[in-house]
Amino acid sequence: MSDFKRPIAEAGSSRLDRTRLILFHKPKGYLVTRKDERERKTVYHALPSFILQEGWVPIGRLDKDSRGLLLFTQNGMLVDRLTEPGRCDKTYEVEIRGRISDEDLSRTLQGVPTTIGTLKVHRITRQREVGPKTQLEVVLREGKNRHLRRIFHALKDPKFHTPLKVLDLKRVRIGPLTLDIPAGAWRFSTPEEETQLFASFKIPIKEE
Q1: Residue 11 pLDDT greater than 50, yes or no
Q2: Could you tell me which residues are beta bridge partners of residue 70?
Q3: Is residue 12 predicted with pLDDT exceeding 80?
């Protein structure tokens, strides 16, 4: 079913009973949906069939052109807590075409008018500039559809006055969980990761 690497996991039934999370490194080109009317590839094509069959659902979204950490769960409370605006920090590595001024960096924190309203980031850091490209680390606490792409498109390169364009967008962290597997791979969360994540959102853990 998958044209990516085999999972970094052992799919034993006892582990499935205990775990509440699957970590997946979503590659570019895959939709985060159960089924697409145009028959485009979805993340379930890159994952074992049991994930769809047993009702594992993604927590949040990544658009088709983005990559990085995507979580799956069967725990409805966890979906609600992690997708509630302002509750969970999500960290992204973003590469844009163009340069972003210090003034515009500050504007992203206050709010940038876009075609769907004013959007902002929680934290943003300029990592490096290489030729015409700029690499940034961005933290969101609330994400709308194509949130970062819309923000940067609304800003302009200070020299050429052309809209900034996102060339690469990779989510590397959700709360305390960090992306540590190659593109197309997946694994179960560890008990330590689950405890840390659930504690940070005050989600009760059912004892075995």
Answers
A1: no
A2: 24
A3: no
The CATH fold assigned to 90-173 is Pseudouridine synthase (3.30.2350)
CATH for 13-85+175-200 (3.30.70.580, 3.30.1780.10, 3.30.420.10, 3.40.718.10): 3.30.70.580
- Locate 10 and state its tokens: 């052992």
Residue ranges of domains in the chain? 13-85+175-200, 90-173
Is 3 a known active-site residue?
no
Residue 14 has pLDDT above 60, yes or no: no
Q: How many CB atoms lie within 10 A of CB 113?
A: 12
Catalytic residue, candidates 3, 17, 63, 80: 63
Q: What is the 3-class SS of 120-155, one letter each residue? A: CCCEEEEEEEECCEEEEEEEECCCCCCHHHHHHHCC
Structure confidence by residue, pLDDT tens digits, 18-31: 458 999 999 999 99
Identify how many contiguous H helices and E strands the chain contains and give both numbers.
6, 11
156-178: pLDDT as tens digits: 999 999 999 999 999 999 999 99
Q: What is the pTM of this model?
A: 0.88
